[in-house]
Design goal:
The protein is mainly α. It folds into two domains: 2-54; 90-370, no CATH class. Helices cover 67% and strands 0% of the residues. It is built from 17 helices and no strands. The longest helix has 32 residues, at 210-241. The protein starts with a helix and ends in an 8-residue tail after the last helix. Mean pLDDT is 76; it is low at 56-73, 255-259 and 371-378.
Length: 378
């Protein structure tokens, strides 16, 4: 017992309650089996004794630890960081009223602006990511957003037999509305992330042991993960309903969006955007709570699936390799009306489910909330 306390003296000295010691021991790999060797029934009982031994009755309580480096106190202007991506989404939405190359140029600026705004928004607030997220994760987010806008058009051109890109891409209104909904959901997602972190910290203080904490935080995680897609659906439907207003800005009728019989409509665009939104939210939530590599792997898996679908369609043009494109063609043709949007929906949805399964195990641990309990978010 003495040796265990010596090895974890730094943890005991700065802990403010036994549960924080238990969370720290859990994060360092101490299990109930280790506790049994010290004649305790579980890690929490062991942590209680370590806490009592550290806190002598005649000693003054230790000073509160300094907060980790991070953003300062919350200010009224803090939410603006999460509203910036919406400007890019609105630009893409408004570009649907423009013809030809003008639409392509404005859409490209809007997508680039949304990506840059998301990167800047990751520097502060409840969605702030501490160091450790691979730099390639930012590129993955950029690819996923770019595919959300241009992917259906490009895949439609390839399935239609185009030998090259000979005309400017045309973004259909449902696709632009989906991106606008995604960017508008950043601020609500930040609020959900703050609510989840605060609720988990409250349960961390009130729970009697680690098992009780896990049982109490699981419903909280389920509500947080469910709330974001629900908000996404509402925002995207609102953007779709605004089509007549955007249409009044156009002096000429819009051009056809995708030259293929598998063009995605509103349900397909909404489904794909919800899958992407859930993936981005889960990846950010994992990164915020100390699991950046898992988040990066989830994003990379979705990107890999989308790139593979495009390459398979291209490879199918080689004589004798037509069978390679059949999986993508069958997915697009048999997706119950989703059309071309079935590819990003399946890619992002599968990656989101994998991250959800992983998050269900790691975000219900007390150690995932021990650090964030000391940091201040804006």
């Amino acid at each position: 017992m003495t040796g265990l306390m010596y090895r974890h003296r730094d943890l005991c000295d700065r802990a403010v309650d036994p549960l924080e010691i238990a969370a720290g021991l859990e994060a360092r790999g101490v299990t109930d089996r280790t506790a049994l060797r010290c004649r305790h029934r579980d890690v929490f009982s062991l942590a209680e004794e370590m806490y009592v031994r550290t806190r002598r009755p005649d000693s003054a309580p230790p000073a509160s630890p300094a907060p980790l480096p991070g953003p300062g106190a919350r200010t009224p202007l803090a939410p603006l960081a999460h509203l910036l991506p919406l400007l890019g989404g609105l630009l893409v939405l408004g570009a649907t009223a423009l013809p030809g190359r003008a639409q392509a140029a404005v859409t490209g600026v809007g997508v680039a602006g949304a990506v840059v705004a998301l990167v800047l928004g990751a520097e502060r607030g409840p969605l702030r990511i501490r160091p450790g997220l691979p730099a390639a994760a930012g590129l993955a987010v950029g690819w996923l957003l770019a595919y959300a806008v241009y992917g259906d058009w490009l895949l439609g051109e390839l399935l239609g037999g185009a030998t090259g890109v000979t005309r400017a891409p045309v973004v259909p209104y449902p696709t632009a509305a989906a991106l606008a909904g995604l960017t508008a959901a950043v601020l609500p997602a930040a609020g959900v992330a703050r609510w989840f972190a605060a609720g988990a910290r409250a349960r961390l203080r009130d729970s009697r042991d680690l098992a009780e904490f896990r049982a109490r935080v699981r419903p909280l995680l389920a509500l947080a993960v469910t709330a974001v897609p629900a908000v996404l659906v509402a925002l995207q439907l609102a953007a779709v309903a605004a089509e007549p207003v955007v249409g009044q800005l156009a002096e000429s009728p819009r051009q056809p969006a995708v030259h293929t019989p598998y063009a995605a409509g509103v349900p397909g665009a909404v489904t794909a955007a919800c899958a992407l939104g859930a993936l981005l939210f889960l990846a950010r939530l994992l990164a915020v709570h100390g699991f950046p590599r898992a988040a990066a792997y989830g994003l990379a898996a979705a990107c890999f699936a989308q790139v593979t679908a495009l390459l398979l369609v291209l490879a199918a043009r080689v004589p004798g390799l037509a069978v390679l494109g059949r999986p993508v063609e069958l997915l697009v043709a048999g997706s119950a009306g989703a059309g071309l949007a079935a590819v990003p929906a399946v890619a992002c949805g599968a990656a989101a489910l994998a991250l959800l399964a992983y998050a269900g195990g790691v975000l219900t641990r007390a150690s995932a909330h021990r650090i964030t309990a000391r940091s201040t978010t804006t």
